[in-house]
Amino acid sequence: MKISVSMLSGYEYCPRKLYLQYVLCITEPPKESLVLGSLRHEIYDFINKNEEGIVTSITKKLQLSNILNIYKALYLKILREKIIKNKSKLSSVNLELASVFKRTYPLILNEAEARATNIFNFIQEYNIYGKELWENLTPKIISELRVESNILQLKGIIDKVEIHKDGYVPVELKTGKMPKEGIWPGHRIQIAAYALLLEEKYNKKIKEGFIHYLDAKELRHVAINPFMKEEITALTKEVQELLNRQYPPNYCQNKNKCTNCGLREDCYNEAQIDTLLSEI
Ligand code: SF4
């Protein structure tokens, strides 16, 4: 049975939680970070899908500030529309629309600046516009790319894939706290699994990936090494075995995780767990 890449990182976080969610079907109540994260995903997906329209609309030499204004106008419109569309989800976790706007606008402004600068520099160097500019521009970005493999027994959706002249680079967008150094272990597993899935899909070696910590506005690099395949294969097997077990794993050792866990009450309610186990 194919499992999703997010299950691998969930397993790394807490095997018991994964069991409660996927075997006992206990749902985690919506959390502020998850609702905000999904809104940001929606916005970035829309941004990526509209990049061609912006680039092909540039048909003559423009100042950087003009290009930036084109990006800013569209991104602002997207942000407003997506916030309104997600109004009830945001209210369900007590998020006010104005505060979401204030927190999200700097992130998309940052993205607009990066993309406008890339286009401006590209035009300076190659002096091409419109369709020709789009066809030659690198990197191009695919968002929400579906990948799966019968060999790896994995499937998933990659947030963003950059297509450079010399290869593909997977990028995962993450909201919330960033570690002082490097990336969180679950994020490393995710990007490694996506690199393997991309490698199989395009039959090209993937050398690196990135985690984009949106709140910190920082891209953290992950070098892909040959040992990761073994690690991901072993982990996939462990998760498949876990999903076939008749009883849940022990509580996790890191009590900080339990303090922040949305399933804490269900997890420690042994009578409820026993009832659910008797029903499977
Ligand atoms: S409360 Fe702790 S042990 Fe239970 S599912 Fe959450 S993180 Fe895991």
Describe this structure in words.
The radius of gyration is 21 Å and the shape is globular. Strands 1, 2, 3, 4, 5 and 6 form a 6-stranded mixed beta sheet that branches. The model has no long low-confidence stretch (mean pLDDT 94). By secondary structure, it is α/β, with parallel strands linked by helices. It has helices at 5-13, 15-22, 32-49, 51-57, 64-85, 87-92, 97-126, 130-136, 185-202, 227-243, 255-259, 264-267, 270-278, and strands at residues 3-4, 140-149, 154-164, 167-174, 208-213, 218-223. Helix 1 packs across helix 2 (15-22) and helix 1 runs antiparallel to helix 9. It has one domain: Lambda Exonuclease, Chain A, CATH 3.90.320. The site of iron/sulfur cluster has 12 residues, from helix 2, helix 11 and helix 12.
Number of domains: 1
Approximate helicity band: 55-70%
Distance between the termini: 18 Å
Under the CATH scheme, which architecture would be assigned?
Alpha-Beta Complex
| Total DSSP E strands | 6
Residue windows where pLDDT falls under 50 for at least 5 positions: none
| CATH fold annotation | Lambda Exonuclease, Chain A
Question: Topology, please?
Answer:
Elements: E1 3-4, H1 5-13, H2 15-22, H3 32-49, H4 51-57, H5 64-85, H6 87-92, H7 97-126, H8 130-136, E2 140-149, E3 154-164, E4 167-174, H9 185-202, E5 208-213, E6 218-223, H10 227-243, H11 255-259, H12 264-267, H13 270-278
Parallel strand pairs: 1-3, 4-5
Antiparallel strand pairs: 2-3, 3-4, 5-6
Helix pairs in contact: 1-2, 1-9, 3-5, 4-8, 5-7
Bound molecules: iron/sulfur cluster.
